[in-house]
Each structure stands twice: as C-alpha cells, then as structure tokens.
C-alpha cells in the first residue's frame, strides 16, 4: 500500500506537458484542463464554491507514467484518457496503446484526507477479495 501513497503525492502538481494523447468526456474531446474540473452534476447553492471544492489539479505526466507501467510487463504508451462520472473522486478511464485499459481514481478534497480515504478503499477491496467471492477490481498502484 505504501507505493500507492507515494504515487498519490506525485499527482499533486501539474507542471509538465503530456505527449500526444486524447482527452474525452462523454465521447466528446475536451481540453486537458477540463480533467481537473467537476462536470458531472449541478449545484443549487453556492455554485462557485461547490465547483471550486471539487476542482482537483494533478500531475498528468506522473499519472500517465504510473499507468504505463501498472500491471507489470513492458511500459505502454497512454493513448487516451476518458473522464468518467465519479461521485466523490475523479474517475478516469486510461487506454494504452496495446489495448489495455485501467481506471484511475484521483481523490477530491470534499471526501476527506486523500491518504486515509484511499487507504480505506484499498483495504476494503482487499478484504472483499480475500473473504468473499464477489469480483472486485485489482489495485495496481
């Protein structure tokens, strides 16, 4: 679990450009900056404040580096990132050149301390996998 937490810290700032890669949301191209914004719902009260709380900037290069090597094997180029509907986190479908796909979750500030909420999710998934027959996704990083 410690490598996961180190990788979360790498995502906090975005100072670099990512090579040619498409970014989409609901099957439409979007600018890369829109990956950081909340676009999945509406806020009735204090709209600007609520959207600001859900804005989460992260290091896209670091995310792509982590995703390219996740799952072991040879590093694969990331060809697209699709912004999915996420309730409390940024949920991204990452597609690799070899056809592999991953889901990345980037915690938002409204859910609490990122380290603790992510550790709780990882622990819950590991528990379900170990003690039940319910299929759950494998945490790669």
Explain what this protein looks like in three dimensions.
- The protein has 141 residues and is α+β, with helices and mostly antiparallel strands.
- It has one domain.
- Helices cover 32% and strands 20% of the residues.
- It is built from four helices and five strands; from the N terminus they run H-E-E-H-H-E-E-E-H.
- It has helices spanning 2-10, 47-54, 60-69, 114-131; strands at 22-25, 28-29, 78-84, 89-96, 101-107.
- Strands 2-1-3-4-5 form a five-stranded mixed sheet.
- A hairpin with a 4-residue loop joins strand 4 (89-96) and strand 5.
- The model is unreliable at 12-18 (pLDDT under 50).
- One of its GO terms (cellular component) is mitochondrion.
- It is found in: Mitochondrion.
Please summarize what this structure is.
The protein is α+β, with helices and mostly antiparallel strands and 141 residues long. 32% of the residues lie in helices and 20% in strands. It has one domain (2-131).
Characteristic key phrases:
141 residues; alpha+beta; 5-stranded mixed sheet; 5 strands; globular
**What is the straight-line distance between the termini?**
8 Å
Tally of alpha and pi helices = 4
For the report, how would you describe the main beta sheet?
A: 5 strands, mixed
* Spatial sequence of strands, sheet with the most strands: 2-1-3-4-5
What does the radius of gyration come to?
A: 15 Å
Any idea how many domains? 1
Protein name: Altered inheritance of mitochondria protein 9, mitochondrial
InterPro entries: Kinase-like_dom_sf, Mito_inheritance_9
Family: Belongs to the AIM9 family.
Subcellular location: Mitochondrion
């Amino acid at each position: 679990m410690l490598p996961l937490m180190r990788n979360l810290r790498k995502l906090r700032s975005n100072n670099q450009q990512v090579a040619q890669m498409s970014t989409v949301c609901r099957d439409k191209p979007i600018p890369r900056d829109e990956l950081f914004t909340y676009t999945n719902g509406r806020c009735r009260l204090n709209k600007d404040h609520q959207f600001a709380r859900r804005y989460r900037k992260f290091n896209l290069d670091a995310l792509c580096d982590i995703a390219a090597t996740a799952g072991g094997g040879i590093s694969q180029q990331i060809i697209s990132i699709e912004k999915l509907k996420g309730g409390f986190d940024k949920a991204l479908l990452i597609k690799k050149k070899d056809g592999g796909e991953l889901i990345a979750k980037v915690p938002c500030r409204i859910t609490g301390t990122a380290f603790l909420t992510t550790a709780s999710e990882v622990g819950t998934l590991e528990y379900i996998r170990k003690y039940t027959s319910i299929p759950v996704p494998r945490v790669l990083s």
